[in-house]
Amino acid sequence: MIHRPPVGAGLGFRRELIAPLKQHVPDDIAFFELAPENWAGMGGRSAKDLRHFTERYPFVCHGLSLSLGGIAPLDVALLRRIKAFMAEHGMTLYTEHLSWCADDSHLYDLLPIPMTEEAVKWTAQRIRQAQDILEMRIGIENASYYVAPPGAEMSEPEFIGNIIREADCLLHLDVNNIYVNSRNFGFDAVDFMTALPLERTCYIHVAGHYVEPDGLLVDTHGATVIDPVWSLLDTAYAHTGNVPTCLERDFHFDDFFRLTVEVGEIARRQAALPVTNARAA
To answer: I need a labelling partner for 251 at 20 to 30 A (CA). Which of 20, 121, 228, 261 fits?
Structure first.
């Protein structure tokens, strides 16, 4: 299997999209993203469908359950399965959420990590362990959250930056998560983003969200991307250059054409970047 890094604009690979994608993959879709927990070790038709696409397109692994900030031992067996899975399908990039999601069992939620010096050292050590097993630098994603953890000793951009430097890892920048958190907690999204170590950005997510009747924004990945999030993506590109960017969509797949239009919007914004500012992660 040829190892191909992702470039350009991508789309989350979901079973609900396989049928229309087999009929035609729009030109703007340059790569796909999947959660390895949902695909590694699968056989039968699912394995054949995945192989059909990994033989033709680059894929990114975006993990859901490593629990980098958790207190339970790191799931080394999972990491080894992911490493073998990535090698089997020629995948070159793995990212995970900067969160915790497990203790004795998985909690099926991505919870924020207390922003303390102790947590920086703890989480960075776990990221280094993951990188040693995978034999590659990984990207960590700034997460959305709905309750801020107590006892903060630093700002969130400082916390993320300190972990990235301590672990010598990369940044997976999610612009919708920044926008959602900025609205829910009342901070400036651009100031927050530009305080991150954007020079370490290897990958970007853009997505839609849901607004509750009381005004709370929920990071659902089930709606159309709104203009302020597109604007934040443009600001990110001004600092990062042309980093591979994926449209996240977890449900509401009925309008496949609309999804392809949004991926095309990513590609259009990337194409408008100055050539001297463009780079592949």
So the answer is: 228
